[in-house]
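Support request from a user on the community tier.

User writes: "When I paste my structure tokens into the form, the page sometimes reloads and wipes my input. The last time it worked, I copied everything first. Here is what I submitted, just in case something in the input itself triggers the reload:"
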């Protein structure tokens, strides 16, 4: 569901950061590697994790990163935005220091970048038009239907590995999109019959648009923040900060704000 990014939230995070700075003045830093800046990168269009509301970048990942970095000696740099499948290149080419974009931890990605400890678990939802006649209950039911997913996501991997490579779906029936907003718009317009998307994002679309979740495909995936392989200091600092926001209740507060009700 949509959430308005209030000044109260910004004030809360600023106060949290200020309080943390004071607290750290009398104790050992949790960063383990000195201070500096963390410039985060994301891919808007993945509500409720990261999206634009009235031109402002908001979402669960945005709030969580601000809270996590406030628990470290690092300063949070200006958010940079990219298409999802360009984020790893942006990280490895030093355009950003951290990926915060509901990115699933996979062995393939782990060969190129390092991940933080997992911060969210999700499966895949298959969404269809609410007033449509198509009502699949399994991946096999998608055979012969035009389907879509966002490029570079787990949804695309599921379609490629479980349907196309298994001969259950023609390559020509798969549509790849730069973001899920475009995919869902095509679904609403009748150009495709289903979209495979991360479960919490699918639930948000179902709350806000005339689409519904047909079924959930369990993948057991986990999201992590991405870092360069030679950037252990930032990785360790964010892991410590992530644990801190879990311990002090901030993580639960943010999760409830963005995913409940």
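"...and here is what came back when it finally went through:"
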């Amino acid at each position: 569901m949509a959430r308005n990014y209030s000044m109260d939230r910004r004030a809360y995070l600023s106060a949290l950061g200020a309080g943390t700075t004071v607290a750290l003045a009398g104790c050992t830093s949790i960063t383990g590697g000195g201070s500096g800046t963390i410039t985060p990168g994301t891919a808007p269009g993945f509500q409720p994790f990261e999206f634009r509301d009235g031109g402002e970048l908001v979402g669960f990942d945005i709030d969580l990163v601000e809270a996590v970095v406030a628990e470290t000696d690092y300063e949070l740099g200006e958010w940079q935005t990219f298409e999802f499948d360009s984020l790893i290149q942006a990280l490895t080419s030093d355009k950003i220091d951290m990926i915060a974009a509901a990115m699933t931890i996979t062995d393939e990605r782990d060969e190129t970048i390092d991940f933080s400890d997992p911060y969210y678990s999700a499966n895949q939802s298959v969404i269809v038009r609410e007033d449509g006649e198509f009502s699949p209950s399994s991946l096999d039911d998608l055979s012969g239907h035009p389907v879509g997913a966002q490029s570079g996501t787990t949804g695309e991997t599921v379609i490629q590995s479980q349907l196309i490579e298994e001969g259950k779906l023609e390559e020509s029936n798969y549509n790849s999109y730069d973001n899920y907003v475009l995919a869902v718009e095509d679904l609403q317009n009748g150009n495709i019959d289903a979209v495979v998307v991360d479960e919490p994002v699918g639930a948000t679309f179902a709350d806000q648009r005339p689409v519904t979740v047909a079924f959930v495909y369990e993948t057991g995936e986990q999201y992590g923040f991405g870092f360069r392989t030679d950037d252990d200091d930032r990785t360790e600092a964010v892991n410590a900060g992530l644990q801190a926001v879990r311990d002090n209740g901030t993580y639960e507060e943010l999760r409830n704000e963005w995913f409940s009700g």
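Agent notes: The reload is a front-end session timeout and is unrelated to the input. Residues 7-25 form the longest helix (19 residues). Residues 1-34 have pLDDT under 50 and may be disordered. Escalated to web team.
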